[in-house]
Amino acid sequence: MSSVELFQEPIRRRYYAPYNSCSYLFFVVTVWVLVALPFFLSYSENFWLKTNTYREQVSNKYEYKIIIEGSGSSAADSFFYSSIPDLNRLHGDAFRPVSVKTREVDVNIDSLTDTFEITATIPIPASSEVKKLDCLVFFRSQLQSSAKIVMESVVHLSHDSGVAGKELVTSGNLVFRQNNPVFVKGGYTTMYADTELVDTASIISAKEGDIKTILAKAMGRNYTLAYEPQYNYWGAKIDDLAGTFTLNAKLNIPTQDILYTPKPMEVLKDAWVKYLSMFVVVGFFLEKLCSFVYFHQLVETKMLVETVGSTTGVPHFKKF
What we know:
Strand content: 35-45%
Number of domains: 2
Oligomer: single chain
Radius of gyration: 36 Å
Distance between the termini: 42 Å
Number of helices: 4
Number of strands: 15
Order of helices and strands: EHEEEHEEEEEEHEEEHEE
Shape: elongated
Helix content: 10-25%
């Protein structure tokens, strides 16, 4: 009756030598090379993971705070509106009542706003014209996945044209920008709690509510929210009749890469994978080298070959 091979296993050759021999010295050198060489081969300035990224959609909640400022050909065309009453009083005659409507859209129903829409209607006298518009919209931004930070942020919408306009339609993305990686350990951290963008409790001059001053404060932070427009449409004013100027903005909030500082365990895991990848390669070639050297007795050893039912083997000598 014919038979079929079901399983196979190698028979070991065991090599022995005294401690005070060249064979043992060669063994020590190969062990040192096996441990050290993969580290030197895999080591680079990126061996230790300093930063990493993960994907998250930043939670941006409208704080019902807005500042709108416009200008035209003359000082009389300038106007100002804010949802902060103290700022309106500081701008005196430039104040204009503005109708502001906002809408938060959650497309995938995950409790995160995917699109924020804002419509502002500004009454314009027949003698006035608008050639430039600046708008600041304030949000409460929050990272709540790996990193956990909460902060007040501001978005700047702006357009400048040489032609008097009646509307500005803009659409783009709200992007979380960072100069430094965030930390992923611990609970929630409220950023910039001691430095409000608009300190309503101590407004004593118009400069404290000036758009340029607010933007300077925001840009001085390591973490900010920026508006990246995909398109701007400026509708020209074609008559001298009294009417309104309309701002329509659609702000999309995409999922983006968040840069963070990894935990020590993640750093060690990443370094171990890099080391192990070279360890396997070096170990393969060293195993072949040792097999050749010991089998052909390039260094003198006592070789025992295992046989069936033997755990120690029988002596066998071979010179190259």
